Amino acid sequence: FVHVLCGITQPLTGEKFYVRSECPFNFITFTHDKVDVIVTLTRGKSGLISRAVINVNNAKISLENGHIIVEDQSVSVPYNDMYRHIFQYGIYTKMKSKVLPAAFSILWQSFGNEISLFWIFNLSLSFCQVDCKALSYMKNCFSDLDWTMTLCGHNVDGFEKRPEIYCPFFHEIAHNCSEFYSEVSDWRIRTNCREYRNCAIYWNCCLLGTVLNDLEPGNLCVAPQNCPCFHNGQVLPHGAVLDERCQTCKCQGRDWTCEKKTCPATCTIEGRYVTTFDGKYYTLPGTCKYHAVVGLQKQKYILLKMFEVWIFKSEYTVCNRIISFFASFPPENVTVFWQSSMFVQLHASTGMSLQVRVSPTVQLYLTLPAQEKGQTKGICGNYNDITTDEFISFTSYPESSSEVFAQSWAEPGCTPGQKCTISQTPAKCLYLKDPNGKFAACHSMVTVDSFVEACEQSQCGCSGNKEECLCVVLANYAQACAKQGETVEGWRTVIDCTTECDHNQKFEYNMQACNRTCRSLSEPDPTCEGVSDPVEGCGCPEGTYLSENSKCVPRIECSCYYGGKVFSGSEPVEVNGQKCTCEHGKPIEDKLCQSGCFCPTDLYEDHYGNCVPRESCSCVSGEEKYRSGDVVEDNCKTCTCKGGKWNCLSQECPGKCQVYGNGHYKTFDSKWYHFDGHCQYTLVEVNFTVITTSGLGFLLYSQCFGKH
Questions:
Q1: Domain residue spans in the chain?
Q2: 3-state helix, strand, coil in the chain (%, to 5)
Q3: By the 8 A CB rule, do 264 and 238 touch?
Q4: Which of 36, 307, 573, 652 is deepest in the core (most CB within 10 A)?
C-alpha cells in the first residue's frame, strides 16, 4: 500500500520520507486496463490534508471541508454509482471502484474538516513493507529505527500539543507491528494518544466499556453514557436540552429523555383532508357542511362547509367572503384580527383559538387547550390522546369507517363525492419530496407523503385553476412546517406560486400582525396578546402601519382611534355616551315552514317509521338500524342503544402492528406511515424483539431486554 500521514509518506516500495508543503502534489498515478487513476493531495497549514482529489476514469471525487463531492455535487455515505462505492469502514471512510481490481481500495480518516491519514491499498502487493522481526517490542518492527525517529521528529516539530497531528504517526507504527504481533499493548499510554484497542479488525475497535463516537469529528471512543444525540439532521452533545413547544428533552447517552408539557392540540381541516386533535389523518367523503367540534354539553360548536367557514364576526370583515361565528360566550371575550392578507385569527378567553386561511381557498386550524380533553365530538375527534377511537359518530357509536363517521356529522343533504384516480404523480407535486428543494429542511419534521397524495388529488380533481390548486397544497405543507418552527422561504418563487399584494403592502413568509396597524398606536393591540402560529401573506413592512384604507403609511400619516371612531389628528374628539352595537353579531337563519305528516308533540319518528317517546328512539350504526335496548360489541367496546344514542363501555383491546408491501407500516395506535429502507430494523422491543428485514420477512428473537 501507499499511504500518507501528516508530513510522512510511505511509498509502495522503498523507505518512508518526510515533506511539509501546502502545494498540491501528485500522490499516485497509474493505469489499469486502460483506466487512468490520478490522486492529488493538498496539505493545510495544520499539516493535515485539506483537500484530496481522486480521479478514476475521468470521474472526479473531491474531499474537502469535511464534504465528499462527486461531480460537483456534495454526497453522503453510503454512496453508489456506476463506477464508485463509498462507505463507512469503522472509523474510516473507504472507496472502491467497479472498474478497478477488487483488491484495490482507498481509505482515509477524517479529523474535523481535514484528513489525518490517507491510504491506497492493493492487496496484490505485500501489505507490510517494514522488516518486522519478533525480537523485541516495537523497535524491532523497523530495520532503521533511527530514521523512523528522525521522521517522527520532523512530523511532530511545532505540533507537540496537537495529538491529531502526531498520534497518526504512532498509530501507523503500532499497526505495522500488529501485523506480526498479536497485541501492542501500551503505546497509547506512553504517547498520551486516544485509546483504541488493537485487534484483528483494527479500524472498528474500542476499549471494553467504550463505544465509537462516529457522530462527531475525531472518531473518539467514549463511554456509552457520553454519546451525543441526533435531532433533525444535527448532532447535539450529551447533556444538550431541547425546549420545544410541548415537551422538554435532554440528551442522555445517545437517547432523548423527554418530559411532556401541558399543551394545546390543533385540528386541521384543509379542503377534504382532516387531521384530528389526536393526530388521526383521514379524508372527508364530500363537499358538505359538517360539525367540526361539538362540546359534550353543546356549549360551543363550529360549522364548516367547504370553501365557507363560519366564525365570530367582529368589526373586521373578509372581502368577498362571509364570516360569522356561533358560540355561547359573549363578543367581548373574543378577539378577531387579520394576521395577514391570507389569514384571520380568533382568540377566545376560554383558550380556544381559530386560524383561518381565507385565500385562495378556506383552510381551518382549530386549537383547544388541554382542559378540553375528552370534552369534544365532531369531525375533529374526541381529543383524548388516543388515535384508535377517533370515529365516534353523532349517535356516540364508535365507527370503523371514516366515511360513515364523517357522514354522521354532516348536515342533511350531504352527497359523498368521488375520489379521482391518477396514473402518475405530477412533477410539481414531487417537488415537495425534492431532497435539495426548498422544503427539504422540513422533511425530518413533517411527513410529506400525505401532502403529496393531497397534491395528486388536487390536480386530478381541481375544478378551477390547477396551478392555484397546486399552490394551496404546497402552502399547506409550508404552514405545517411553520407550526414546527421551520419557516420555508422562497418556495413560491421556485414553483411559480407568487401572489400579488394590494396597495403598497409586502408579501412575507412570516408576516407579523402585532403593532402593525394605525389603531395600535392609539390603544393596546389585542393581536399581540395571543400566541399564534406563523403565517404567510401580505401586510405592512416593519416601520409602516395599516390605515383604515388598507394602505401602509408612516406613523405621521396615521389616523387616531377612540371610542370606536376614526378621526384625523386635527379634528376634536366628541364622546356623547352613545353605545355602539354590532348589527351583525349573530346571523339570522330563516326557518322555512314545510307541510306534511309529523309526529305529535313529545313523540319522535324512529328509524322504523314509528312515533315513539324520546327514551325509545332507535339507533343506527353505518347502514344498520337498532332498537332501543339493543347491544352491539365492536372495536373493543360494548354499546347499548338508549334514547337514540349509544352508551359505550370500553374493554381491554389488543393493539396490532402491521407491515406489508414495500415499506408500509401501521403502528399499535393505528398510525400509518411509509418508510422505504433496505436494512434490518427492530419492529418492536418489549420482552422480545421482532426484527424485520426489508423484502425478507420477519425474524423473532426471544430475548429479555428489561424494557417496557
A1: 2-189, 229-260, 604-650, 658-701
A2: 15, 35, 50
A3: no
A4: 36
